[in-house]
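In response to the reviewer comment on reproducibility (Comment 2.3), we provide here a single inverse folding case reported in full, input and output, so that an independent group could reproduce the run without further information from us. The structure tokens appear first.
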């Protein structure tokens, strides 16, 4: 039986020379030796992955990037799952506001709105629609400006919009339209225009539920008593909705102080013994 602890020696030494040991290493486990192979002045080595198998195109090495990452003059294509921790360099900073809109930071420290195109790539958003107002981005938008360095912003669009939220709905005797949700779309105030061909009442929901709040959040009060029919589309009944504005002195004051809540809903009650036809429009104001 061969001695497994013997070194490997030259097989054909020069004449008169001894058979000296060749470059070698001991096998894993300490049993026997193998010759060392190499290339470019170094020993050949095999990197193993966490599973103990050689790293290859089918057995990839998971990588976690920690610290700062900078990208200049190129792009990166990523497949699979990649985890990045630390702080990204300015050229790679992307943030989102509370509405989910994206902004990218330039090398100069300015923020520009960006969007994802159909190819899945980020690009500058030249025209960004924010809550029905189109912002034409012709120059960089800076943040944290001082009064001595104001930001010049040009908006194209309207500061007030008109929308029909109930269109000629038939409401049975002593029935109602149900609580109709009216999204604020980011506006500051809302003025409702009501048409009803029978006696009616108007209310909103409470601040935290979809049940009626009576007259608490409307001006003028169109809930405590029955309202006369309003049939002229050009001269509808005007009602401001806002937090606790019932005691406002006039419509202007109600609009000035009519703070909206997150889940505005309105309802029209038909208080007559006949079927009523109800139309409700809303004017949203972005500036007051």
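Designed residues, in position order:
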């Amino acid at each position: 039986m061969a001695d497994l602890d013997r070194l490997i020696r030259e097989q054909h030494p020069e004449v008169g020379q001894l058979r000296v040991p060749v470059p070698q290493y001991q096998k894993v486990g300490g049993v026997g030796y193998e010759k060392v192979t190499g290339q470019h002045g170094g020993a050949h080595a095999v990197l193993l992955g966490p599973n103990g198998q050689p790293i290859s195109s089918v057995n990839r090495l998971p990588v976690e990037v920690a610290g700062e990452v900078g990208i200049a003059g190129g792009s990166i294509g990523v497949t699979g799952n990649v985890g990045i921790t630390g702080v990204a360099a300015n050229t790679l900073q992307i943030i989102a506001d509370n509405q989910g809109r994206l902004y990218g930071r330039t090398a100069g420290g300015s923020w520009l709105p960006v969007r994802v195109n159909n190819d899945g790539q980020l690009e500058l958003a030249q025209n960004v629609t924010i809550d029905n107002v189109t912002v034409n981005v012709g120059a960089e938008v800076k943040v944290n400006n001082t009064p001595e360095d104001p930001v010049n912003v040009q908006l194209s669009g309207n500061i007030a919009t008109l929308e029909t939220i109930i269109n000629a709905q038939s409401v049975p005797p002593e029935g109602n339209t149900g609580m109709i949700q009216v999204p604020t779309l980011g506006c500051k105030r809302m003025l409702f225009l009501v048409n009803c061909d029978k006696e009616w009442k108007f209310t909103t929901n409470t601040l935290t539920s979809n049940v009626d709040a009576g007259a608490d959040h409307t001006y003028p009060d169109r809930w405590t008593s029955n309202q006369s029919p309003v049939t002229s589309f050009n001269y509808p009944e005007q009602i401001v909705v806002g937090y606790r504005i019932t005691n406002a002195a006039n419509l202007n004051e109600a609009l000035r102080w009519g703070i909206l809540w997150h889940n505005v809903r309105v309802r029209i009650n038909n208080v007559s013994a006949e079927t009523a036809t109800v139309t409700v429009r809303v004017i949203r104001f972005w500036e007051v």
